[in-house]
Amino acid sequence: MKLDIEGSGKRDLFLVPPEKLVVIGLDTEDEPEHPLYDARVTLPIDQAMVADVAKFGVVQPIRARRNGDKLEVVVGRQRVRLAREANGIGTGDPIRVPTVNGRRSSDRRTR
How far is residue 20 from each of residues 30, 33, 48, 108, 109, measured CA to CA in Å? Predict the structure, then answer.
């Protein structure tokens, strides 16, 4: 499967549809033992923040790592969730999440 990402002209920054990013524990059945699991993915989403993302987009890049044909979120889980919700509102162009490459060695907990 080919990932639908766009380079931004910078070496390691890509714009990725939030639906193409895998949030461990939200998009998978992984549990707290997984190094990328974060219990905050189950918290309610703040609709005011969704409105901000719908208006301004995701401003700060997330960090993701490639695992086979998937991009797993290392840092920025909430930004991905907000972008998904903002895209669900359907105002304007679809939001893409600025993403930088994470290293495989960054498997330690990132809270």
Answer: 18, 23, 24, 23, 22
